[in-house]
């Protein structure tokens, strides 16, 4: 143990993707997927911070049944900004653009993504979209919610709808180009011996996500553009006074925006599979089932959008069919959960920070998924639709799922990205704070919703009995805020003061752990040739880990 | 420092030496196959992009079938047919350009591309003429809209909304195509190795142009040839 640490310390700073060129221009004009990932990490964090501030304002407002903190109109703009930032500038981007960009080429043994300059363009489109959105905020913001429902958005709203939608449209193209890059890379850039069924499940997840992005995003892009055209020129097909159909907007919008949920959660599934295997020291149970369930979710996801419209005037028969397919999609999701549990069973589980996030992911996602079934049944949905039950449900899936998996993945690959270890004990406690804070925030919202608290309301003076639940939720939000702020602090601290990490600090399997930490600009000294199976932990006895508080199996003297 | 500059110079020299092969690929075949996979994926995205509008068209025509039938006499089959001919011929000249790119015959490639570009301008010219006629006839949806005789206000507004949105989006694609073709002509005229030593960039623009053509093949009957 101490031997490896001193070995690492003794070697002078090697050339890597971070230090081979220091100028600002070398960052801004880079084609290196790893540098672009770091640029995304920085920008996405800023947006997440802004979105969280909005969430904080919402929770402050709702502490009192008749709050005067925000006017009703301001409140509408705040929750709209929260939704738009979190969906379009955080959740859809966070795992594909940060972890996916960084890891996908390394995991398949490539020197870079297929189209590095397109990748850089994706980043700048994302940045431009963000700037445009913030410009819209400066000019008064938008009050339509993140869903931009017509005819409110196209005819009546007096806020910055056109600017905001254009921003979302541009962000969509950033996302499309990332998906295109991933698809071409996975198809054509795999190292010799890296067959489709040797791909890490994270790569499968990225591939399935890219398919959803490529098929879904253009539909919402053109739909939102139609709203802008209709708002500005009166040429449109949504406004009733033109003879158009506002419900058509909902169909087109949810045709993308339900699959968009899978753009957010499939990458999380991918991270989850990596974490569970690495910290259970076992090959994943049912590799093919997990891989194909990923594709099944991606494809089935395109045929369930009507469950958002049970009360929007679609026919009962449509509703029944959408309800059935929605139930069906729970099957591949459950397959994954069972496979992860079977992987952990009889594994050598090491409860380190990423694994704590992985386990809390499973608990939270199961609650989020099962409460989704209440909303998928038409009968119960009539009662629960547009209440806090829905809010709680999708926060369990999005925050409990995507954010938890992202944090787990970020901790897991942090030593690879920056070559430094973070303070493990502090990180473990933080993971638990996040879990507790999250549950205290969102579990009361299930009850609130069931009792009838509508979403998007700035007050509830007509029903003051709801206040204790709101107070609890706001209390939980402040705990969650601490849990999300701590990683920012200690991860930044570790960049300079963290102990140096070895090339494979977790002793995990996979090509990314066979290259240097942090990797050299072209990822590998020579092109890797893959000869062993994916997640092959069979020769686990002589692994070396440099995590300080891991209980090591005694290794035979002279093994290293 | 001096060694750094030397290294950089060496790298630049290296890049030049290898011609169009990018550093992330092993060989030119891998690069070309990857480009083609990327291009086809992009075209799938484009299909979905137009798909939403085609769905809107189907639903609205179902709802207002009689209005669509009467309104479609406002579009002139002559101009639409002319544009169809122009686009089809430009697709043919584009295919020839790609063919000669594979044979590495720059002059013939440039000739093919110029004919294609001419087709694009022809198309845009005819389209602008048609738009101007409709604006003069008050057939642009909105407050100043006057429905053609025998149609309801709503139905004919839907027809012209879809007409302007779908042909407008298609027109934007024609303009983007014209920009790509112009760039390609300049690259070929300067005999840049990125196009002369590798036909795939030319082929990609070709694929895009055929797609633009294909969309028009669907738009033409939907707006000019509606049967009773
Ligand atoms: Cu949904």
Provide a compact summary of the structure.
The complex is a heterodimer of chains A (560) and B (228). Chain A has helices at 2-10, 24-28, 33-61, 72-107, 116-138, 152-156, 161-188, 201-233, 246-280, 287-300, 316-344, 353-376, 378-384, 388-418, 424-451, 467-497.
- In the CATH hierarchy, the third-tier topology of chain B is known as Four Helix Bundle (Hemerythrin (Met), subunit A)
Instruction: For the record, give the distance between the C-alpha atoms at the N and C termini of chain A, rounded to a whole number.
Output: 10 Å
Radius of gyration of chain B: 23 Å
Largest sheet data of chain B: none
Largest interface: A-B, 42 and 44 residues
Shape of chain A: globular
Q: Topology of this structure?
A:
The complex is a heterodimer of chains A (560) and B (228).
Chain A: H1 2-10, H2 24-28, H3 33-61, H4 72-107, H5 116-138, H6 152-156, H7 161-188, H8 201-233, H9 246-280, H10 287-300, H11 316-344, H12 353-376, H13 378-384, H14 388-418, H15 424-451, H16 467-497
Helix pairs in contact in A: 3-4, 3-5, 3-16, 4-7, 4-8, 4-9, 4-14, 5-7, 7-8, 8-9, 8-10, 9-11, 9-12, 9-14, 10-11, 11-12, 12-14, 12-15, 14-15, 15-16
Chain B: H1 2-18, H2 28-63, H3 65-71, H4 77-102, H5 106-136, H6 153-189, H7 193-196, H8 200-224
Helix pairs in contact in B: 2-3, 2-6, 2-8, 3-6, 4-5, 4-8, 5-6, 6-8
